[in-house]
Automatic annotation (TrEMBL):
<dbReference type="InterPro" id="IPR016496">
    <property type="entry name" value="GTPase_HflX"/>
</dbReference>
<keyword id="KW-0175">Coiled coil</keyword>
<feature type="binding site">
    <location>
        <begin position="353"/>
        <end position="356"/>
    </location>
    <ligand>
        <name>GTP</name>
    </ligand>
</feature>
<dbReference type="InterPro" id="IPR030394">
    <property type="entry name" value="G_HFLX_dom"/>
</dbReference>
<feature type="region of interest" description="Disordered">
    <location>
        <begin position="1"/>
        <end position="56"/>
    </location>
</feature>
<dbReference type="InterPro" id="IPR032305">
    <property type="entry name" value="GTP-bd_M"/>
</dbReference>
<feature type="binding site">
    <location>
        <begin position="284"/>
        <end position="287"/>
    </location>
    <ligand>
        <name>GTP</name>
    </ligand>
</feature>
<dbReference type="GO" id="GO:0005525">
    <property type="term" value="F:GTP binding"/>
</dbReference>
<dbReference type="Pfam" id="PF01926">
    <property type="entry name" value="MMR_HSR1"/>
</dbReference>
<feature type="compositionally biased region" description="Basic and acidic residues">
    <location>
        <begin position="1"/>
        <end position="15"/>
    </location>
</feature>
<dbReference type="InterPro" id="IPR006073">
    <property type="entry name" value="GTP-bd"/>
</dbReference>
<keyword id="KW-0963">Cytoplasm</keyword>
<dbReference type="InterPro" id="IPR027417">
    <property type="entry name" value="P-loop_NTPase"/>
</dbReference>
<dbReference type="GO" id="GO:0043022">
    <property type="term" value="F:ribosome binding"/>
</dbReference>
<dbReference type="GO" id="GO:0005737">
    <property type="term" value="C:cytoplasm"/>
</dbReference>
<dbReference type="InterPro" id="IPR025121">
    <property type="entry name" value="GTPase_HflX_N"/>
</dbReference>
<keyword id="KW-0479">Metal-binding</keyword>
Length: 463
């Protein structure tokens, strides 16, 4: 994000790169959470009313988003908006009130946790005498801060440039028409704003070309994985649901896992063996969030293709969050946009995380309420403490490899080197030592493990 010098400079560029800025501390910000009294429209496909979040939950999330890029919210407020103003969204009285707060608190930035039109953003900046970011702009700033790989950086840059295109007008005061041609004889040329938009469009086209190259590379990697057909298991969920913590618990990886919105952005893939030896590729993806900008979903399509192509999707929910139902609905809506049916019980499994944060009474009530005649019991875990992880692993293995099957294997004396492998990849029910020095083992294992046993025995017999 720091490389963007065009129209809408990053929040981080204002204080972070000036001498002595570190001593001044984080950027002082005012966070405003508008709550519109109009009820959101229902889902067009299901005609179900959309779940609404409490004002307190929206406030806490907005503050969390601000703190995720080291902003200092010196003042936060929830504002009820009965009649959204086309010019400023908020009423004139509230705008004047916040202008005084910004002035007294010497705030440099105002966060409005709601989509703003370019006109509303420009007018608010004039009235408040401070830089204004809406929810989309703030999420873009966070994504720019978190991107580490080339692909992630390209995706954020593309989304940011698309966001800027409609907002260039607020950054220019020299919009007179440039003279075309040479000397004083040239006719009127293009306006400065038209020139700037053309430059932005050129950059967008270049980024799209680079992303297409990255996409082709990712497709090649995916094709190679398919040649060695390891099932792919993708973890998705609302941001801060504990995806990276679960990923680390299952794989032993060291992916950053903090109590912070969008702590990780770039996808991570690791190979892991399940209890009965089934190898899978586990994918940790970017967290979802309510009102995720459409162009952000489009920009991250290449990354999210890992979810589309996955054999199994784990929908991880923070069951301790009061708004877990609304968060789940947001995740399901984004999955639907990607072509993944969250109601497909064979491909998508719902996992309730952070069960350790509930007291015993709430835990029993939630688990009981989650069971009905049409829905499988939820899988309750704590990625932090490890509770329920063994059950989750077993369910994942059953989904990708089928139920355990019993098999009897007889090993000759020269095949006893396979005994350790059998114990590690199956549940040995009985073992009999034979007179010739070999053994006969009865074990329960997955279908893939049985196929691997036959392959290894064939190699031994023909070795």
């Amino acid at each position: 994000m720091a490389r963007k010098k065009d129209a809408d400079r990053s929040v981080r560029e204002k204080p972070a790169y000036q001498p002595g800025a570190e001593a001044e501390g984080p950027t002082r910000a005012v966070v405003i959470v508008p709550v519109l009294t109009r009820q959101p429209r229902g889902d067009e496909d299901t005609n179900r009313p959309r779940l609404t979040r409490s004002a307190e939950a929206r406030h806490d999330e907005a503050v969390g988003l601000a703190q995720a890029i080291n902003l200092d919210p010196i003042h936060t407020a929830v504002v009820t908006v009965n009649d959204p103003r086309p010019a400023t969204l908020l009423g004139s009285g509230k705008v004047a009130e916040f202008a005084e707060i910004v002035k007294e608190g010497r705030a440099e930035l105002v966060i409005v946790d709601h989509p703003l039109t370019p006109v509303q953003q420009r007018n608010l900046e004039k009235e408040l005498n401070a830089k204004v970011l809406d929810r989309t702009g703030l999420i873009l700033e966070i994504f720019g801060e978190r991107a580490r790989t080339k692909e992630g950086t390209l995706q954020v840059d593309l989304a940011h440039l698309n966001y800027q295109k409609g907002r260039l007008v607020r950054s220019w005061t020299h919009l007179e028409r440039q003279r075309g041609g040479a000397g004083f004889l040239g006719g009127p040329g293009e306006t400065q704003i038209e020139s700037d938009r053309r430059v932005l469009q050129d950059k967008i086209n270049k980024l799209k070309h680079e992303l297409e190259t990255v996409r082709r590379t990712r497709d090649l990697h995916r094709a190679k994985r398919k040649k060695v057909p390891f099932p792919v298991v993708a973890i998705v969920g609302y941001t801060n649901a504990g995806k990276s913590t679960l990923f680390n618990r299952l794989t032993g990886a060291g992916v950053l896992a903090e109590d912070m919105l969008f702590a990780t952005l770039d996808p991570t893939l690791r190979r892991v063996r399940l209890p009965h030896g089934t190898p899978v590729i586990l994918s940790d993806t970017v967290g979802f969030i309510s009102d995720l900008p459409t162009h952000l979903i489009a920009a991250f399509r290449a990354t999210l293709e890992e979810v589309v192509e996955a054999d199994l999707v784990i929908h991880l929910r923070d069951i301790s969050d009061p708004d877990t139902a609304a968060q789940a609905e947001d995740v399901e809506r984004i999955l639907a946009d990607l072509g993944v049916d969250a109601g497909d019980g064979r491909r998508v499994i719902e996992v309730w995380n952070k069960i350790d944060r509930l007291d015993e009474g709430n835990r029993e009530r939630l688990l009981a309420d989650g069971i009905d005649g049409s829905k499988a019991p939820p899988i309750a875990i704590s990625a932090a403490t490890g509770e329920g992880i063994d059950v989750l692993k077993a369910i994942i293995e059953t989904r990708v490899s089928g139920e355990l099957e019993t098999q009897t294997v007889t090993l000759k004396p020269d095949q006893l080197g396979l005994v350790d492998w059998l114990y590690r990849n199956g549940d040995v029910v009985s073992r009999t030592d034979n007179e010739d020095g070999g053994i006969t083992v009865s074990l329960k294992a997955t279908r893939s493990a049985h196929e691997e046993i036959e392959t290894r025995l064939h190699r031994k017999n023909n070795g």
